[in-house]
Amino acid sequence: MRRLLSVTTALVLTAGMTAPFAQAEEPKKGGTLVMAIQQTPRHLNPAVQSGTATGQPGAQLFAAPLRYDEGWNPQPYLAESWEIAEDELSVTLNLVKGAKFHDGEPITSEDVAFSIETVKANHPFKSMFAPVESVETPNEHTAILRLSKPHPALMLAMSSQLLSIIPKHIYGDGQDPKAHPRNGQDVVGSGPFKFVEYTKDQHVILERNDDYFIEGLPYLDKIVMRVMKDGSARTIALENGELHMSGFEQDPLNLVRLKKNDDLTVSDKGYGAIGPINWLAFNTQAEGPTSDPIVRKAIAYAVDTDFMLKALMRGTAKPSKTGIHPDSPFYDGTVEGYDLDIDKANKLLDDAGYEKGSDGMRFGLTVDYGWPTVKPPAEYMKPALKKIGIDVTVRSSPDFPTWSKRISNHEFDMTIDNVFNWGDPVIGVHRTYSSDNIKKGVIWSNTQQYANDRVDELMELAGSTNDIEKRKKYYAEFQQIIADELPLYPLFPSPYHTISNSKVGNPPDSIWGTSHPLDRVYLKD
Amino acid sequence: MTEPTLQVTHPLREMATMFFRNYTAVFGLILLIAILIFTFIGPLVYQIDPFEMVWAPFTQPGQDEYLFGTDYLGRDILAAMMAGGQVSMAIGLAAAIISVVIGVTVGAFAGYYGGWVEEVLMRFTEFFQVLPTLLFSMVIVALFGASLVTVTFAIGIVSWTAVARVTRSEFLRIRELEYVTAARSGSAKDAYLIFRVILPNALPPIIVQANLMVGSAILFEAALSFLGLSDPNVMSWGQVIGSNRPYILDAGFAVAIPGFAIFLTVLAISLIGDGLNDALNPKLRQR
């Protein structure tokens, strides 16, 4: 007999249920929300496509078993309750009864099993469902996930855009799900909004799902997601009220400008699970000096992250000392930092025998960058490291693939990089440090080629238990080692912000930004 | 009573006289010399590394002893202007030389030989002429990476067509003149005729064209840098504009100062070119 470890009892999702925090006014029904997305989605099916361009409309079209509140707590969504077995090797989902797809077919445990299989086979984040060996469906409303080992990332992987419940009767027709014709047109989903129209480079239009399984929701009649690639254009559209809302805004100057507008709310809440961090990555196996941890430390002491936050990011980003996002419960802010200390950096290099030449330089290094928004931190390295006698050459790449090829083939000394945490560290963090994941030619693998047995062990331990306190302990030690050996030096998280104007009620503030069901968002008069 | 002698002046002297009689051209020359002194002598006096972060970012011009203020990383814009001027001028000059070498070669052969050689070479020229120049140079820089050499080469390769056309038309005219026929009847070889007989006489309009080319090359470099297609390890005026462009609303001076310097330099070069054109034009000389 399995003993139930946790049973969620918040089953009743009735009409009139509002956001978890107290609202002074009653949400109003109706209205069309106009928001921006920054790229054209390849298609609208997040089960086989990562990225926020697909995720933002995808999270409206498709429901997931779980959703998360702003405190990283799983909440019932399509699963009204769930249990984790004592041995942590199986998870039972109890689905909401009477839930229907947009075409009227019932959502059953078969669909959940099918969705998990599809995501496991096709989604780029392989670690999400890798330990799921099988999904049993004893009855229509129960799905049991059998695991090969305890898998703490599973809960987050079942939320938001990461596990979209897709209809088996449509996607199970034997066609390749990645190229399925129904991914972009005539999409039949399970979420709060139904598909109306998708025009490439123009917009995605969604309308209210009247048969939504949470009664009384959603509040909005319609959502128009306009594809607007230019940040200045979005800024102006937000200022003049053309747009109600825009998520994932990160340009510091636009943010500073938008913050001055009294009609707009600029919030950095809700991006902890996306967890984007900019860092200075080192080639730890280079023939050059970056393979020496002392050199990496000296560089960290010479790089003034405080200056970057103030001058480059204009105070829109918060400090991040490790490769785990500061909003994550596993973030350890107590690690040894590298406050600016030029003397110490010089002394480290002197003691290690890196003599200064007649021109005052010890050696030369290159720093790469792959896209224009990270040019400033790359340019910054040149004058900053000159102070400790390192002659930096900034290497610009004509396009992203060139950069990606250089870095993934380990042909670099240092590079500015930006990697997302994607919820649980198992999904987005381990890949950067695991010695198993040194994969030539694969970008955002362990391109630093960092290998440490203890780090591998800690990730293994933290990745196979659901005990959050234990995991915190493992990740704390992990972060201490990383901060000491510095395969990369974190600079700052990308300052993602959600901008909404005063008409928008309940703007999303969960951990997934605007890649979150907008069923409780409403428009005021 | 002495017999009146014919006053013969050296053509160069005559040209100089004509040039210096033209006040706007002289103004351009003085301006260019001043800019050259600023960029080449200035750094000897004002020894600050243009890449070094010396002060708080976006210090206003004139404040805290920084005449032109500081840029987004707190680098001294005055130092960047001096170092950047050298690079901008060097790029301008080198790109102009590249385009003159290509242009003169193509134009000379086309004009001298005529026939199918001209046909092929001029269609080739037209091919380059119809390409949108900025776009084409962007493609070159994007393909081969943003370094000083590729940027210079990209500018040179897109701007030689005008030189080729001018050279060709001059050759078409001069090859029919008596002294060319005379030289040819003296069994002069083609190469001799092209480079020793015709080219020196075709030079005046080419010189004017080349001079203007320097100005447009500087502008071109600035345009490429503005779009972020410049070597980040080399300070040039365009680079200063390009890297401070995102902050234009906050600190317009960091963009305006190098922009004004480019304006002055191109103006000076254009005025000189205008003056040279007048001075080298034999018809005007008779006035």
Quick synopsis:
The complex is a heterodimer of chains A (525) and B (287). Chain A is α+β, with helices and mostly antiparallel strands and 525 residues long.
Question: What is the secondary structure topology, with strand pairs?
Answer:
The complex is a heterodimer of chains A (525) and B (287).
Chain A lengths: L31 E6 L14 H10 L4 E3 L5 E3 L2 E6 L5 E6 L13 H14 L9 E8 L2 E6 L6 H4 L10 H4 L21 E7 L3 E6 L13 E6 L3 H9 L5 E5 L2 H8 L4 E4 L8 E7 L10 H10 L2 H8 L29 H10 L11 E7 L5 H12 L3 E7 L3 H9 L5 E7 L4 H4 L1 H4 L19 H10 L5 H18 L2 E6 L3 E5 L2 E2 L16 E2 L2
Parallel strand pairs in A: 1-10, 1-11, 14-15, 14-16
Antiparallel strand pairs in A: 2-3, 4-5, 5-7, 6-7, 8-9, 9-10, 11-18, 12-18, 13-16, 13-17, 19-20
Helix pairs in contact in A: 5-6, 7-9, 14-15
Chain B lengths: L10 H11 L1 H23 L31 H37 L1 H16 L2 H12 L3 H11 L2 H14 L3 H8 L4 H37 L10 H8 L8 H28 L1 H4 L2
